[in-house]
Design a protein that fits this description.
With 230 residues, the protein is mostly helical. Helices cover 57% and strands 11% of the residues. The chain contains 10 helices and 3 strands.
């Protein structure tokens, strides 16, 4: 058994029947592209893991959280964004077990949020393929529950639009848009009203003396509703 694979199994507390699945999950494209014995990268597993993660998270929220579709969508986005996934990966110590190309390793790839988040999703897929949905759930749900419990301890945001975008952008199927809903007052004292939409759901409304300020306030309200402290 490869050292990296054993390292990850020990952290997971799960023994793979097919250890090659886990080895692939831990193989970054930079390592695979160096021609290391024909190893495949974890990109295909990442694709599957993203869907499995979304399904399990949505199922848990549906069963344990109140709120309408829009509120659940916002909450799910905060739980499966790159920032959250990279934090889960660090808690697991995933970076210590990754197979990275020499350049990526020298550049600190084992701590790069995008690499950690992608690898975390790939591990989910490996668990799902090896042990089914129950194995994937047993791995994912403790992270989701801990994150839900700590939502109120989030750091403050200043650039609310960027913060909101970072949460949403890891889910390609989600569409974030700002819509001007009203404009009033004389030219020297205009007031703008903007809504921010996640798909067809209004997730925040803001007002300001400029469109940009109103957009920031709309994003700020959306972040509050998602459980992020102001």
């Amino acid at each position: 058994m490869k050292e990296t694979t054993k390292c990850m199994m020990d952290k997971l507390g799960y023994t793979f029947r097919n250890s090659e699945l886990l080895e692939t999950a831990l193989t970054h494209s930079s390592y695979a592209n160096e021609g290391n014995r024909g190893l495949k990268s974890n990109e295909r597993l990442e694709f599957l893991g993203d869907s499995v993660l979304g399904f399990i998270t949505a199922g848990y929220l549906f069963s344990h959280e109140g709120g309408e579709e829009g509120a659940l969508t916002r909450l799910r986005a905060s739980l499966v964004c790159e920032k959250a996934l990279s934090a889960y990966a660090r808690k697991l110590g995933l970076g210590e077990c990754l197979l990275l190309g020499k350049g990526e390793e020298r550049g600190g790839g084992a701590e790069r949020p995008s690499i950690l988040a992608d690898a975390f999703e790939a591990v989910i897929a490996a668990l799902y393929l090896d042990g089914g949905l129950k194995a994937a759930e047993a791995f994912i749900l403790p992270f989701i529950k801990d994150e839900l419990a700590s939502q109120q301890r989030r750091p403050q945001f200043r650039d609310y639009k960027t913060a909101l975008q970072e949460i949403i952008q890891q889910n390609p199927e989600e569409r974030l848009e700002y819509e001007l809903k009203g404009e009033s007052g004389p030219d020297h004292n205009k007031r703008f009203v903007v809504e921010v939409h996640l798909n067809s759901n209004v997730i925040g409304t803001g007002q300001g003396r400029s469109k940009k300020e109103a957009e920031q306030q709309a994003a700020r309200e959306a972040l509050k509703l998602m459980g992020y402290d102001d």
